Amino acid sequence: MSGYRMMMLGPPGAGKGTQAKRLAQELEIPHVSTGDMLRDAKRRDTELGREAAEYMNAGKLVPDEVVIGIVAERLEQDDAAQGFILDGFPRTRPQAEALTDMGVELEAVINIEVSDEEVVRRLGGRLSCPECGAVYHKEANPPSQDDVCDKCGNRGLVTRDDDRPEAIKQRLASYHRQTAPLVEFYEQRGVLEAIAGEAGPDEVTQEILDRLAD
Ligand code: AMP
Fold first, then answer.
1. Model confidence, pTM
2. Which of 20, 60, 85, 127 is the most exposed place for a label (fewest CB within 10 A)?
């Protein structure tokens, strides 16, 4: 295994969250998702949650200093000492530099490559459980019982505010403008692993594990 400080890179809907959860379980390290942390703050209606909500609902990135603060705090916790999988962070050049300033040298950056058309198809059909965060797709991965979460039994799956068509467009634009430049940033540091993300989730997981074992 080439290392335990990892990050998932790629456009929204690439499968970063799905893959990060599986890898975290396989490698026994925490999954650190800024999207999940921000959604949790939103749900609990904290000050952070209220501030983040207006950006998130519009499909815009939350300001760097806000996200950098929550990640710095999270990575100081004991369970992150042996490594972690960052998912959705860093998403801008200043965030990547802040991570370096925290003393974190990533050993692998998994870049999941998916076309814009596929992103629109995936996010447009996505259903999320507001209780436990499980995600489904109306056609590709529906829940076994209509509108009921397989994981926690909650009734009432929803389309996330930021999975609405206008927000999807905005998220893709933010990705291309602010996040895609990180591909080169990490390529230059020799840690980038490009993974074709349009295959099924099991194949993608296997490909990532094979690549890490090389
Ligand atoms: P995700 O679940 O990773 O797609 O994140 C959902 C939303 O949370 C994004 O569209 C942003 O509004 C916000 N967000 C998550 N991570 C970051 C980040 N690293 N920087 C800025 N905003 C973020």
1. 0.90
2. 60
